[in-house]
Design brief:
The chain starts with a strand and ends in a 6-residue tail after the last helix. The chain has an eight-stranded parallel β-barrel, surrounded by eight helices. The chain is about 50% helix and about 10% strand. The chain has about 300 residues and is α/β, with parallel strands linked by helices.
Length: about 300
């Protein structure tokens, strides 16, 4: 499994009890596949994986796989608080036909590097599912060092890392450091949409994108410009989206994406509680930015 290009992460619409709206979710996934994204990222943080039961996560994964129809690879979040739970989720994903699992070190008690290493080694060994390291310190409060990523890259079945993209002036150094410690063929990818385009330009192999999960054609246009060597155009398109990146930074990409999906009529679902939907002036601000950028359900 080689993760590269645009991996688009949609929300997972569900009702207040956590039951996934399969029809709405399939509709979102269908839009991603139609835009020819390189992979669908089901049940990432934008997909609210920690808020869903194992059975609902399986329903969502089955829906994504059915919609993708084997044409678009589906990677899926398999993070859980306990190692045995993560193993079970990864086994479910492999049995269903997912291409890879996205594993975050979800924790309550702060974890040490050796504990995270063992967690990944056990999940990889007992599930047989290719794993992408999910480095998301803003949520998990665990930051992967380059040394730990390097150690994990040599664990059979750990094939990639999804890191928060650093600022433009730091990304080349970050890539060089990771490449110096990881095994051959290990994929280096980035999230954090407002910095991720520069990471791709610098040589990152995958963009794990929130905006790609809602506006896949817009994100793919940027990726294709980079692949064609038109860096100036990619930067122009990225700069144009700065009002959206500003909203992501102000309100969180999760809240903004739910508001945008609702405003565009793609789903009426709200974020899982206790996360509250944007309302009033904040929701109006999202609507203004979408209108100014010309972003709609076809974007």
């Amino acid at each position: 499994m080689r993760l590269n290009g645009l991996s688009a992460f949609p929300i997972t619409p569900s009702d207040p009890s956590g039951k996934v709206d399969v029809a709405a979710f399939r509709s979102l996934v269908a839009r991603l596949c139609a835009a020819k994204v390189d992979s669908v990222g089901a049940l990432g943080s934008t997909g609210s994986y920690p808020y869903l039961t194992r059975s609902e996560r399986r329903r969502a994964l089955d829906a994504a796989l059915e919609e993708a129809g084997g044409r678009t690879p589906v990677i899926v979040g398999v993070g859980a608080l306990r190692t045995d739970e993560a193993v079970a989720l990864a086994q479910d994903a492999r049995a269903a036909g997912a291409a890879a699992g996205l594993l975050a070190p979800v924790s309550y008690t702060p974890l040490a590097d050796d504990e995270v290493y063992e967690h990944f080694a056990v999940v990889a060994r007992e599930s047989g599912l290719p794993l992408c390291i999910y480095d998301n310190p803003g949520v998990t409060h665990f930051k992967f060092s380059a040394e730990l990523v390097g150690r994990l890259s040599r664990v059979p079945g750990v094939v990639a890392v999804k890191s928060p993209a650093p600022a433009r002036d730091a990304v080349a150094e970050n890539l060089a450091e990771l490449r110096s410690v990881t095994s051959a063929g290990f994929s280096l990818g980035y999230s954090g949409d407002w910095n991720a385009v520069e990471a791709l330009i610098a040589g990152g192999e995958a963009w794990y994108s929130v905006v790609g999960g809602l506006f896949p054609r817009t994100a793919m246009t940027i990726v294709l410009a980079i692949q064609d060597g038109d860096v100036a155009e990619a930067r122009r398109l990225n700069a144009r989206l700065e009002p959206l990146w500003s909203l992501f930074r102000e309100f969180s990409s999760l809240r903004v994406t739910y508001a945008a999906a609702s405003l565009l009529g793609l789903t009426s679902a709200e974020p899982p509680r206790p996360v509250l939907p944007l309302a009033g002036a904040a929701r109006a601000k999202v609507a203004e930015v979408l209108a100014a950028l010309g972003l709609d359900a076809e974007s």
